[in-house]
Design a protein that fits this description.
The chain has two helices and three strands. With 134 residues, it is an alpha+beta fold.
Length: 134
């Protein structure tokens, strides 16, 4: 080893350690965001399904199969709650926030979001799901 090459192995080892730590940090962040994304998608699906189940129960229907316009739809959180109230409660139970709830005549579309608290960044993830009466 010549005098000009002294310390080069130390610099190469230091560079390798920094590179390895960087790659490990990226892998941990990627895994955390990916896992949260999958959980958020599942929460959106469960929220949409529960709201769709409530949609089927919340429409008062007469003997001809038509909705009775004079009868009010029930509200609250009981078995005959409105679809958006049910979606809000289901989202809260899944520790996500309901950001949108759109009720049509035969389906419910919901959007939920979740803010991750990572040390480096605080990304907000969102997912949407649509379901009809069960």
């Amino acid at each position: 080893m010549t005098r000009s090459e002294r310390g080069s192995a130390t610099l190469h080892a230091l560079f390798a350690v920094v590179l390895l730590c960087t790659m490990l940090t990226v892998a941990i962040l990627w895994t955390a965001i990916s896992t949260a994304r999958h959980k958020l998608t599942a929460a959106a699906d469960m929220t949409a399904l529960s709201a769709a189940d409530s949609l089927d129960a919340s429409d008062p229907v007469d003997a001809t199969g038509q909705a009775d316009p004079g009868e009010q739809k029930p509200t609250g959180t009981g078995p005959h709650a409105t679809p958006c109230a049910t979606a809000e409660r289901t989202a809260a139970l899944n520790k996500v926030q309901l950001t949108a709830c759109l009720v049509s005549s035969d389906a419910v579309t919901v959007e939920v979001s979740l803010q991750l608290d990572l040390r480096i960044t605080r990304p907000t993830l969102s997912a949407a799901a649509r379901a009809g009466p069960v």
